[in-house]
Amino acid sequence: MHASTQKGPGGRSHEVLVIGGGIIGLVTAWRAAQRGLHTAVVDPTPGGGAAHVAAGMLAAVTELHYGEETLLGLNLESARRYPDFAAELADTTGQDIGFRPSGTLAVALDSDDRLHLRDLHALQRRCGLESTWLTGRECRRLEPMLAPGVRGGLRVDADHQVDPRRLAAALVTACERAGVLFHRAPVSRLRVERDRAAGAVLGEGSLHDGAPAGGVELAADQTVLAAGSLSGQIDGLPPEAKPPIRPVKGQVLRLQVPPAYAPFLSRTVRAVVRGGHVYLVPRENGELVLGATSEELGWDTTVTAGGVYELLRDAHELVPGITELPLTETRAGLRPGSPDNAPLLGPSELPGLHLATGHYRNGVLLTPLTGELLAAVLSTGELPALARPFSPRRFRTGLPSPTTVNDAPARQQQPA
Question: What burial letters (b/e) apply to 224-238, b meaning 16+ CB within 10 Å?
Fold first, then answer.
């Protein structure tokens, strides 16, 4: 029995088919639809994925790492877009995504941590970023719940937060109102015709109209692979187009601050404890997100006693009162990591296939900008200059990576 081919609106093929309904796939579909492209998303549970585990820190400054200065530019550009992006989503959907310009405080608990923060502060200053060094006493004046042993810290007023779960829900609504079709099914394999990506074959699930999806072939002029850590696992990808994405496990806890304890923290607080990063993100509704482990364990998403213990132990050293709070949720998710920790954006080696994956720890932060960049290349055929250092083609032998160059123009794939 031959698979049927599902046409898009008006009996035509989809102009854009997005594989993956996480926040990156959703924002890409929304922006593409806003540009007049007939767009569909394939995902069993749109709005799910890593966003339901992420803490939602918009930490372009405090997440700066040595050798990632070009990625910093991308992160800062996306961070600048967040206030307008949040307002547009609220106007479009009536849903608040929890954008909170509350700032971040990175603190040191011992002399080694203090030295590390001093080095980070110097790097931030060299990159033209604004951060203020505080004494331990000044840190505790800002956040009285901090441990007495805090030795100093960096106040970064430009690093904010958003609620990723509310962001995902709002993006689903925005897509629906823009006419994006949702096929709630997994992708069985990528369709390739005449050496060009041509859509996807679906597994068991349902099409946008409720019809069974199993075996249905969706035709598309352009396909976007935005499946997070699963992006390299889609059957039918030619080896040269398969993104080098690996899953990086992260365990996250959620606690609730009772009214009697409020305000517990006024801003995101983060530190390095025993060499491991820990952060606490307070929500306006009293939720406190505590994370996150970073574990190279393949596809394992088990919440472990050791992971929970380490997070609570390190957080207790930072904020002793945390052990009095109710623990309401434990989750583990998979970040999509790339070889250089930077995203893969734009045309792949397979004509007709674009990538929007590999965002690693910056997926929530890069959501606004990723949508704009992918919509631009989908509608014009040209990858914007800002995204060219992050072309998927940079992993070919001899091509530079965005951690070593400021701009590496990619050869463009014009749509047929």
Answer: bbbbbbbbbebeebe
Smallest CA-to-CA distance from 108 within 61, 159, 150, 59 is with 150
Mean pLDDT, residues 281-297 taken together: 93
Query: What token pair was written down for 334?
Result: 């998979």
What's the average model confidence in pLDDT over 261-288?
A: 91
User: pTM of the entire structure?
Assistant: 0.92
Cα dist from 149 to 62, 136, 309, 319, 376, whole Å = 21, 8, 21, 10, 50
Task: Tell me the pLDDT tens digit for each residue of 115-168.
Answer: 989 999 999 999 999 999 999 999 999 999 999 999 999 999 999 999 999 999
According to DSSP, the β-strands at 217-225 and 14-19 are: parallel
Q: Residue 360: left if φ>0, alpha if ψ -120 to 50, beta else—which one? A: left
For the chain, what are the domain ranges? 1-99+161-244+338-416, 100-160+246-337
Residues counted in the chain = 416
CATH class of 100-160+246-337: alpha beta
Whole-angstrom CA distances from 325 to 144, 145, 253, 311, 362 are 16, 13, 12, 14, 28
Helices (H), 239-337: 305-318
Question: What's the CATH code, domain 1-99+161-244+338-416?
Answer: 3.50.50.60
Q: Evaluate whether 64 touches 130 at the Cβ level (below 8 Å).
A: no
Question: Residue 4's pLDDT is what?
Answer: 59
The reported pLDDT for the residue numbered 401 is: 52
Three-state DSSP state, 372: helix
Residues 88 and 106: their CA atoms lie apart, in Å, by 30
Cis peptide bond prior to 263, omega within 30° of 0: yes
